[in-house]
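Predict the 3D structure for this chain.
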Amino acid sequence: MTEAAAIARARGPITQARLAVDFRRIGLEPGMTVLVHTAMSRIGWICGGARSVIEALLQVVGPEGTIVMPAQSSDLSDPAGWCDPPVPQTWWDTIRASMPAFDPRTTSTRGVGTVAETFRTWPGTLRSLHPQVSFTARGPRAADILSSQPLEDPFGVVSPLAVLNQCGAYVLMIGTGWETCTALHLAERLSDPHGPTFEDGTALLVDEERRWVRFRMPQTNVERFPAIGAKLDGQAMLQHGHVGAAPSRLFPVAQAVDTAVEIWSLPSPL
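Done. Predicted structure below.
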């Protein structure tokens, strides 16, 4: 949505104060640890843009709370697997040879929105070390949440998502669909720990030298997330509301993961 379109649709500007009120109404509280997904364009015309969203989140959870966001950089992957858009096969070797190595300080996000990218550079924000599917966090629990994210199993039992699952964290989805719910990737790993994988690659610094590194990643399937979301939407633990004009949800990571694991672990019908 263009800025002009957002202005035309809006009844008035969305301020930081209004965002804070909406976050409290949906159930966000001081001291919470919360994984946030945001479609900023759905909120409306925000005075201050992404900065106001982040400042309102930090204001509501307070100094004892921890904000977490996805910081995916899917462009740091093997070009042979690119499809949105693909590149000619004749380019692949050049891309592999010249792709900048992942740097948690400077590698930008891709496909996770303006709020997540702004949060990546926010003072005090930390980042996990996975080159493709890292997370960022700010707050007292940030270092523990981001401490370990294995290259070949970034969503499994040793990962930021696993820590969020164990520490009573919540997910806040602001105007986003269930296909964006990163927490459900943990449920995929728990329900099928030996599931299919695929070969990938990226540029990494190894002993201070840039190298092209090949590895295997778990196959994910976000197409089945909306069906889980439909079940979760009717549960009492999930709170619905609006942030600006954006339909939003707040729910505990652990209960969402448990529900998905229970369903996905059932035997397939013959």
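The beta strands are 33-38, 66-72, 126-127, 133-138, 170-174, 197-206, 209-218, 239-243, 246-252.
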